Every structure is written in C-alpha cells, then in structure tokens.
Amino acid sequence: MATYKPVVVQAIPKLGERITQDTVYWRGYKTPVQIKEFGAVNKIDFSPVPPYNYAVTASSRIHIYGRYSQEPIKTFSRFKDAAYCATYRDDGNLLVAGSEEGSIRLFDISGRAPLRQFDGHTKAVHVVGFLSDKYRIFSGGDDYSSSLWDIPSATEIVSYSEHTDYVRCGCASKVNADVFITGSYDHTVKLFDARTKSSVMTIEHGQPVESVLLFPSGGLLVSAGGRYVKVWDVLKGGQLLVSLKNHHKTVTCLCLNSSGQRLLSGSLDRHVKIYSTTSYKVVHSFNYATSILSLALSPEDETIVVGMTNGVLNVKHRKPEEMKEKSQKKRQPAYRTYMKGRTYMPKQEDFCVSKPVKRVLRKYDKLLKSFQSSKALDAVLEPPIRLYTPEVTVAVMQELHRRGTLRSALAGRDEKQINLLLTFVARRVIEPRFTPVLVTVADMLTDIYQPVVGQSAIVDRQFLRLQEAIGKEIDYQEELLEVLGMMDTLFATFTKKNASYLEENRSNGLTETVETNMNN
C-alpha cells in the first residue's frame, strides 16, 4: 500500500517588510514601562532643562516624574476638581495649570503651594501656557474666551471672546513674545497678538480642533481635529500646505521631535503616527492598548511618554548605544563548526545508516487519510485556519474535489455550518488565487441547498451576499476588459506612428544618398 501524501498547500510569496532608517531608529526603544494614574491623562509636558523631568496631569493631581522613576518625585494636589494642561516655563522653574473650577494656578517646582492664582474664567480652563518672554501666561476656557495674564501683578492684561465654542488647545510662539494661538471646537484656529485687541488671523480647520502646534521657526502651524492633521503656512496668511488623513478616529495630540524633522500624532484609534516634515509621509507607527489622549517626547528624543484614556502612562526609553554595541559584538561560533563534515564523501567500505524521518500529519491530513471528508472540511473551517491561513482551507477543498467527495462533504449541514461556509466563500471568492476552487464550491452549495432557500433568513442573507460579491467582481472584470481594449487601441496607434516615422526617415536617407552620388 502506498504511503499517504499530505495535502499540498499552495505557497504564495509575501512582500517583505521594508526596513528604513526610521524603522531602525524608532524601534530602538526598550520595552515600555506602564504607570497607573488616578484618571485619564490629559497632558504630559517635559521640563526643557536637565534632568528632563516630566509633568503628568491626571484627575485632580499633577505628578512630576524623573526620567527613569516609576513613582512621582513630587505631587501638586491643591485642586478641588480636575486639573488640566500643566506646562513648564522655558527655564523649568515654574509650572502653570488650569482647572475645572475656572482658576489658573502657578507653582514653583521647589515648593508645593501655588505662588499665584488667576481668576477670571467662568468655566473650566483647559489651555494654559507661558509666552516666550516668561512673564505672561495665556489661557483658554470653556467660557469661549482666551485671556492673557501678567505674572508679577497676577492681573488680566486682555481677554478675547472671539471663539463660539470651547477653547481646548493652544500654543505660544517662540519667535515673537506677543503671539499665541488657540484652537476651539468651533472648527477654527485663531492667532492673537497681545498688542492688538482682536485676533490677527483665523484659520478654518473644518473639524473641532483638539491640538495645535507651532514649528520652532514660527512659520508653520499644525492643527489636529477629527481624523485630519493639517499643516498651514502662517507667513502666507494661513494657506493650507497639506492635509493628512492617516488615522481612523479623532486625533487628540501632536508633538515634534528635537530636530523638528519628525511630527508625531496620537489618536483615539490607539496609534501614534510619525511623519517626515519634508514629505509628510508616515515613516513609522506605534500601536498602544487603548485610546491615546496625550503624547510627549523628551528634549533629546530619549523618552516617549503616552497618556491613555484608562489612566495608564506608557513610558519608552531609548536603548543606550553601549548596549547596542555589546549586543552586536557577541561571539559567534567559528565557521568551521558549521562546516564540519559537510564535504566528507563516504568511502566504498563505509556503511551508511539512513535515519528514518518521522512525518507528523496535521489534523485534516489524518482525517483525509481515513477518508473522513466531512470532518476534514470541518477541521479547516475552524477560526484559526479559516481566518489566518485561508489557503489551507482552499487546498483541502481542492483535494476533496480531486477525490470526487466535495459534494458529499458539503451536503447534510445545519444552518450554522451553511452560514459559515457561505461567509467564507463570499469573502474569499474575489481573491484571484482562490477563485477557481471557490467558484466550484459556490456552484455546489447553490445546487445542494437550493430547495431550502426561503426557510432560513440567515442562509438567505448569505446567498444574497454571495450573489452581490460575484456581481461586483463581474462588473470589475468588465471594466478592466474595457480599459484593456482602450489601451490596446492606444498601443496600436503608437506602433503605427512609429512605423511610419521610421519609413519616412529611411526614404529621406535613401534620397540624400542618391543625390550625393549623382553630384559626385
């Protein structure tokens, strides 16, 4: 009796992952450290001076963490309700934060009690920050207003009430000490100059604005809202340069790396996308467990900190260069170890012993070997095989068809099994590598279960889906044939033109040659 030959699964070549310098760079971070906060993390801000501690705003507290500490080294908790947007000053000595009750508090990093309290907003203040002169603070609140405050006197300098919805984000210019920008849920981004009584520029984003970012040069502005990240040229009056739509859900935060050559965006779709600021294409992506609310990158790009809706703080540190060099210098076995005995040729008096190789059959192969066609088909319709390796399922169907037992394996099934089969066929029949086999399977299913059509709403729905999928594929094929016909016509025209052009050149060459000979 001949030995059983396992089912041959058609191997489809896969595209290899493209490894770029960005891929290598952004993968050079250690396994993340998870820190649990008391609530959703709405803001992360790194100190601009060494040792680059970072402030995390969550619930009614502000925690200061060291770069490698997993416990807060300092806590500010003088808030009756939620705290928002704790931001460092450029010298790293002061910290300002908004609150749910509408007040703004200024803290000294070395102390605990607030140095100043600014009252003027009637609702929650979600946006606060320092102007680049270090002596003024800008703010934006849910009362639709944006204000400018003087730190020494703790008084309001000017208030703007131009937005028509909540003001939820903002930033200050590092080039001009009088310029700051706010973004609102009224879909607009407004640029204010402290020397004027109204905004000097209004940009329409088109979605509720969740985050704004100004490039260090002050010439480019990035706004995020909805699924869009948009880049604007401020020097050209707010001209739109590029609109990026790489996220599937609302973009909540933006960040630049230390060189300004990479832009990072975090979203509720659990992804952080990294863009090149020259081409604005995605060069890398990070995936996280839950929706992302805040994101920050340390001044030397050594640490990435991400805050999520479930209150978890995800901290990634870059691997030291020394560790990379050591890992690369691991001693490998000598080359001769691998090549030992490879070139040995057996002599005439040698006795060669062949070691029998034990072949392990998979479950469906064992069932096929014992001629259990229906159970073999059931085995390859299990979720792990059906969803992740559909080529195995199709290969078993093809083998059953070759044996002539496919019809009997498909017959005699209940409503749940018919639904499963029809779902698989409707989903995969449009793939060219599976089409020849699955068209046969669909034909048999239609013949076998045609008498029961109308008895089950689920089965009827799946038959309609199958009909729709095949109808769409036929339409696509017809359109492709039309395009091919058009292309054939164009190619034929080009060929005729080239042929006539060559003939003309040849005839001209012959004429010139004859004339030259006659003259000679």
Automatic annotation (TrEMBL):
Key word Nucleus present: yes
Listed Pfam families: UTP15_C, WD40
U3 small nucleolar RNA-associated protein 15 C-terminal domain segment(s): 344-490
Record SMART domains: WD40
GO cellular component, one term: nucleolus
Alphabetized InterPro entries for the sequence: U3_snoRNA-assocProt_15_C, WD40/YVTN_repeat-like_dom_sf, WD40_repeat_CS, WD40_repeat_dom_sf, WD40_rpt
Protein localization: Nucleus, Nucleolus
This protein's record includes keyword Nucleus: yes
Protein name: U3 small nucleolar RNA-associated protein 15 homolog
Source organism of this protein record: Lophotis ruficrista
Gene this chain is encoded by: Utp15
